[in-house]
Structure formats: C-alpha cells, structure tokens
Design goal:
By secondary structure, this protein is of the alpha+beta class. The protein contains 8 helices and 9 strands.
C-alpha cells in the first residue's frame, strides 16, 4: 500500500489466487475492465447499476480501498469504481484480464488452476450470467389436471474460447456440456451457453453457494426458486382463476 496515496489500496490483493481473488478476476473480466490511459495512468474499473451498488462496496472492501464511487455521466442509474494502480493492472493481466477484452478470442480461464475455477466461474456468472425463471404448464389428461411449474435456465456469456473451457471444466464435475451459440445472429464476438436440467441447476447451485462472494439478488433468486415445490392444480379450479 503506497504511502503517497490519497485513498487506501491493497495493491497486493491479486498477487496470489484465493477463492476471493479468483471470484473478482472472473467478475472484472465479465463486468469490468483494465486500461492504460497514458504512460503513468493504469486504471481498473467496475461499473454496475445502482441496484448492485453494494456489490461494488464488497469489491472495494476486498481490495482495501476507500475510494469514492462515481456516477456514470452517460447513465445516471449506474455507478463505477475507478482505481489507478500500475501494480493492480499488471497483477490482473497475469491472471488473464486483458485490455479491450471484448474483442479477445483467448480463453480468460486458461490461467486459472482447477481448484480456483469454481470461484472464477461464479464471478463470470454474477457479471455476465443470468438466472431466468419462466412459468410453464403441462396438461395431464389422465387426471384432468394442469401441472404448473417454474422452469429455470442458467446462462453464461463470454467469448467462445472461454465458454468452451468453462463447459469442459463443469463437465468434469457432472454438468452437461451445452451447445455454445452466438448471443445474437449478428454478433461475432459474444457467445452464450445454457443449462436447464435439475441436475445441472443443483450442481451449479452447489458451486455458487460455496463461493465466498455472490451477488445478493442472484443468490436470493436461485435460493427462492430451489426452495419451492412443484404442485398440481385441478383443471376446473385453474380455469376459474383465469
């Protein structure tokens, strides 16, 4: 920690991998960036919506920073943390974080040892993943009932190489290797993969809840979903409620 700094900062926080540092490396790759502005200015930035402001505060606690947060001039509903540190910049580069990472075709997880990959993946998920819940109906003609349930999908976004390595690792711990597709038909950079089955959701949840850091609203959403039980509703009763 430099004595010349106006604000505090633990510049050694990414020197070694820990569950916490692996998580934040994944999160920065997904929802942050590093940039060299000039010969003397090396920035690490995380920008999130106001709703996730507490998550940036978790990050600042991890890096030992009391830097102020800033409101995005182009989006008043977003806040960001800007940390100027050459040491932090190069520590993150050592673990695979790149400048202009959006256009990279390299695998961001390739430099992360297997023991820390679960935490890295949780960081990717919190930054560029989603947990989607949809209402579904299945007719059971035998008993004249409709089976109402909620189906969930876990989705990850990244470049193709990163998703291939993530899916290969998750396959070794029992999850299905999903189809990796372009996020949109026009997009040549960002890819997407999804998991639907109960087995895959349960395995992913076991990884997610083992992480020392999670995004509160995503953890709450997943936990609430998994705590519910499927149920039958009488078809006539269901029709009366429509």
């Amino acid at each position: 920690m430099s004595n010349n700094r106006k604000y505090t900062l633990n510049e050694n926080c990414f020197d070694e991998l820990t569950p916490e540092s692996a998580y934040w490396i994944g999160f920065i790759i997904a929802d942050g960036c590093i940039m060299q502005r000039n010969k003397y200015t090396y920035l690490t930035r995380i920008c999130l919506a106001n709703i996730d402001k507490d998550h940036i505060l978790k990050y600042q606690k991890f890096i030992g920073s009391n830097h102020p947060l800033y409101i995005d001039k182009n989006n008043k509903n977003a806040v960001y943390s800007d940390i100027s540190s050459k040491k932090l910049f190069y520590s993150l580069k050592k673990w695979g974080v790149e400048e202009r990472k959006t256009y990279s075709k390299l695998s961001f997880i390739s430099k992360i040892p297997d023991e820390f990959k679960p935490y890295f993946i949780c960081g990717i998920f919190d930054g560029d993943g989603s947990f989607i819940v949809r209402n579904k109906r299945v007719k059971d003609k035998r008993y004249n009932r409709i089976y109402n349930y909620e189906q969930c999908t876990i989705s990850l976004l990244s470049n193709k190489s990163t998703l291939e390595d993530i899916c290969s690792y998750l396959q070794t711990i029992g999850m299905r290797y999903p189809k990796i597709t372009k996020a949109t038909k026009q997009c040549r950079i960002v890819y997407n993969c999804r998991w639907y089955s109960k087995k895959d959701i349960d395995i992913f949840y076991s990884i997610y809840k083992s992480s020392p850091i999670t995004l509160d609203r995503k953890m709450e959403k997943i936990t609430n979903f998994l705590s519910k039980k499927k149920h039958f509703i009488d078809k006539r009763q269901f029709n009366n409620k429509k």
